[in-house]
Amino acid sequence: MRSTGSYVTTTTLGEAVRAFVPLALPPASPPLAAESHTAANRRAEMALARLGGVAGLVPSVDWLLYSAIRKEALLTSQIEGTEATLTDLFDDEAGQVLANTADVEEVTNYLRAFRLVRDNLRSEAGLPISVRLLCDAHRLLLDGARGAGKQPGELRRSQNWIGGARPSRAAFVPPPPDQVPGLLADLERFIHDPAPALPPLPPLVRVALVHVQFETIHPFLDGNGRIGRLLIAALLEHWGLLSEPLVYLSSYLKQHQAEYYRRLSAVRTEGDWEGWVGFFLDGVEAAATDAERGIVAMASLINADRKRLLATPRVGAVALRLFELLPLMPRFTIEQARQKLDTTFPTATSAVKLLQDLGLLTELTGQKKNRLFSYAAYVELLAGGP
Ligand SMILES: Nc1ncnc2c1ncn2[C@@H]1O[C@H](COP(=O)(O)OP(=O)(O)OP(=O)(O)O)[C@@H](O)[C@H]1O
Ligand SMILES: [Mg+2]
Prior knowledge:
Layout: E1 5-12, E2 15-22, H1 38-54, H2 61-80, H3 86-93, H4 101-122, H5 131-141, H6 180-192, H7 203-217, H8 224-238, H9 250-255, H10 257-270, H11 273-310, H12 317-325, E3 331-333, H13 334-341, H14 345-357, E4 362-363, E5 372-374, H15 376-384
Antiparallel strand pairs: 1-2, 3-5, 4-5
Helix pairs in contact: 1-11, 2-4, 4-5, 4-8, 6-7, 7-8, 7-11, 10-11, 11-15, 12-14, 13-14
Bound molecules: adenosine-5'-triphosphate (ATP) and magnesium ion.
């Protein structure tokens, strides 16, 4: 059996525990068996390439990103137990007051953290993928009530543990805090100068390795799962596997949560890197295929609805423009539509009315004032997906 690290005894909450200190990547003695991942890696890469291809089915990639990023934000937060839905997010953006504010805040915090990372990676003056950037993302992720007291934006300074009410009962005790910076520096090095591994490791396999290593280091007091999954998305883009973050892997990880945790542990306890890599690659393939199916369904819905609209004799330019705004504004008030269309209230109202008469928009409140409109078929399609 290959060794993946060593144990040191530390004390936390007055109990002696054995903390695990992982070896630096890549797996060695023996190196990762290529035959264990070559076929699955090819299938996953192909699925990502197909996904990149169907993105051209809609006029704007932003339409796809709007829902893909929100789904990932939701699902990654749901692994933690956050209860918010896609329609909550849409309602929040439509300025509605929601009951589960803390849950929605957690999801919108993930969106902010995700945008920060993308913006940095895309700008020349921005930070590269680095501990500093992940700390900045963590600060946004844990912003607000729930994160206070969890040292947002900072590496942990105390010994933590995973699972179990007491450290001595833990499923896993990550490395002592004084080792965290050094371990992260090794991880950063693995990401940026891929030492010529023999045989060379395909980028998706490297992403898989990085995720486990990050979770094993568990550098923050909380939010390690979410930052670790954000890092997956960032690396997919950074290593050119997908030009836009259209895939939401958290759906797969949530569906297979027990196996996800079990395989993370098995790397440490049994040296089973191959098992994890296979699981991860299958996940990428499944998630990319789901995302592709979702995009095809979305494109055909929008195209069919647009056709119906264009075939309507009364349709004017404002109504058409409103329709094209819907994919980025699936729920909205008349005032929001008015602002986006940069027009008067009566003009916005009659455009909304036209789309409502055609059955494209549904009014949700039943009120006379502060009405809320929904592109219902579209919302249903997005929310009903995996
Ligand atoms: N046995 C394990 N070994 C290593 N890492 C694990 C193990 N079990 C779970 N994890 C990782 O730890 C994460 C949970 O850590 P933490 O609570 O800091 O993150 P989070 O983002 O707040 O939570 P969550 O991932 O549940 O949403 C899991 O998502 C998983 O990635
Ligand atoms: Mg947590």
